[in-house]
Amino acid sequence: MHSPVILKRTPLYTAHLERGARMVAFGGWEMPVQYSGVFEEHSAVREQVGLFDISHMGEILVAGPNAETVLNELLGNDLGKIALGEGQYTLLCNQTGGIVDDLLAYRIEPSVFLLIVNAANIEKDFTWLNATASKPVVFDNLSDKLGALALQGPAAPRVLATAASLPRFGIARLSVCDKLCWVARTGYTGEDGFEIVCDAADASVLWSALLERGKPFGIKPCGLGARDTLRLEMCYPLHGNDITEKTTPLEAGLGAFVSFDKGDFCGRGALEQQKKEGAKRKLVAFKMTGKSPPPREHYTMMVANRKIGEVTSGTPSPTLGVGIGMGYVDAAVSQPGTNVEIEIRGKMFPAVIEKKPLLKRGQ
After folding, report:
1. Domain assignment present for 343
2. Where are the alpha helices (DSSP H) in 214-363?
3. Inter-axis angle of helices 38-47 and 224-233, to 10 degrees?
4. Is residue 325 part of a domain?
């Protein structure tokens, strides 16, 4: 007999229930998938502002004189390019170039970095970093001690005026609703906004205070459903779906976040070889072109009755009004404008490969 899976809960679990959230299992956590509805929450973020609980994400502090050197050997991007109070998107790869995780790295002191990692990968990443580091460095997993919120949408700077001067990918220690937090101008929606990392004990106070402060701007509490539709319109990959340890940054279109002009790093040899030979498959974005059910993960992608790949993420797009998705296809048929078919419950439906992102600004 299998023992039941015990799901973790964020510090905001009770607050979600009080607001009528529908809870689901995600990455080992019990998380809100929606409150008022995915389309309504999605529209709030695109047009006004929304608030997400992202306390399931992991926070790992890396400190010591060797911190930058060690992290640059483990991560694909170049930490030498970010100054104090800046961050970057980066990739943790294995020796074959596969993506162990994608994450954000911030320099919060000259030799101290804060890594924000995916919820399902916290323990794996922490173990990997400790086991692979070439020099002594302090890795501190703070995930259980911290909470995090994402305030996203065009009105976010007016709701959080104290952070309005932060540059994109900037991070600062700021007072938010009288609680000291790390505030970064980042997000997973394609809109302006902030990710706020706080003490776990302060998360509920901040959640309530920000929802109250955002009322004049039409703020909505938002769940994982809207987070998924928002990120897919922007073609932001989801680890475990669109990128895994069996996919490389070059296949996933993330080569811009791999710095071949720095020293050696984990997976460099394999990635240099793939760059030289060319990736045999590529992660593409597509839109359905007629009336169809929404595309979903694992659906087959076809050209001229030949399987060319598989959908990794799919959803109805609230902004575009059609089904959209991403998937890996043979490189030879990966060009934007290529007509494909998606097999949905035994029937074929037309789609077209599009240039990323699917949501062009101004739409």
Report:
1. yes
2. 224-233, 268-277
3. 50
4. yes
Torsion of CA 357, 237, 229, 304, to 10 degrees: 70
Which residues make beta-bridge pairs with 107?
A: 113
The number of domains in the chain is 1
Per-residue pLDDT of the chain (363 residues; tens, 9 = 90+): 566 778 999 999 999 999 999 999 998 999 999 999 999 999 999 999 999 999 999 999 999 999 999 999 999 999 999 999 999 999 999 999 999 999 999 999 999 999 999 999 999 999 999 999 999 999 999 999 999 999 999 999 999 999 999 999 999 999 999 999 999 999 999 999 999 999 999 999 999 999 999 999 999 999 999 999 999 999 999 999 999 999 999 999 999 999 999 999 999 999 999 999 999 999 999 999 989 999 999 999 999 999 999 999 999 999 999 999 999 999 999 999 999 999 999 999 999 999 999 998 754
At residue 6, the 3 state secondary structure works out as: coil
Say if CB 206 and CB 332 are below 8 A apart.
no
Residue written as tokens 């509920």? 204
**Joined tokens for residue 345:** 């419950």
The answer to whether 357 and 233 have CB atoms below 8 angstroms apart is yes
| Domain contains 190 | no
Domain that holds residue 341: 280-354
Contact 73, 265 (CB under 8 A): yes
The CATH number covering residue 300 comes to: 2.40.30.110
How many Cα neighbours within 13 Å face the side chain of 277? 10
Name the CA dihedral angle for 263, 267, 270, 274, rounded to a multiple of 10 degrees. -80
